[in-house]
Amino acid sequence: MRKKDFTKRDNIIQAAMDLINERGFSDTPMSQIAKKANVSAATIYVYFDNKEDLINKLYFHSKKKMRDYVMSNYDENATVEERYKQYLRKFIQFLVNNQQEFLFIDQFQSSPLLNEEVSESISQLFQQFHSIYDEGKETNVFKNVDTTIIAGFTINPAMQFVRDYHAKTLSLTESMIDDIIQMSWDAVKYKD
């Protein structure tokens, strides 16, 4: 068995992300990924079972990078509102500053390629933050609606604004980010 060289693995991941963002999933053959990563096609199979495995692991890699950024300096003792706003701000910052990861995540989330194992792993990655939804509902900070709806109002508008930013149809200023965060908060918080 060949010893794994994680520099090669990282090169394969980066090459796959670049090509998939440029060409899409179906128009990115493993041979092109190998060429761009400067490895043989056989080398890819040392690290990944097949193209679907590579794509799922690339998605996990991107989401983990996002989670690590978003959850850095996360204050468990802050109020639900403070944690919610901090999370959303860092989420937007990550997506704005990491265009390749954003483009890949956005494309992948619209595809049927996510496997169950990776889906569960990603849920565990974000469990620390997702528990805030339950806490917010239990303490009547959030509206008493399905958690999926609260999460959707947290993530989806931010994704659309970042999508427009990367498409160069929107100039996303700090003031606009503040407004996006406040409007998202207003949409999910419980009103007396």
From TrEMBL:
Coiled coil residues, start to end: none
Species per Swiss-Prot/TrEMBL record: Candidatus Enterococcus moelleringii
Residue span, HTH tetR-type domain: 6-66
Name this polypeptide is given: TetR/AcrR family transcriptional regulator
Pfam families reported in the protein's UniProt record: TetR_HI_0893_C, TetR_N
Keywords: DNA-binding
Database matches in InterPro entries: Homeodomain-like_sf, HTH-type_Tx_Regulator, HTH_TetR, Tet_transcr_reg_TetR-rel_C_sf, TetR-like_HI_0893_C
DNA-binding region: 29-48
Span of the signal peptide: none
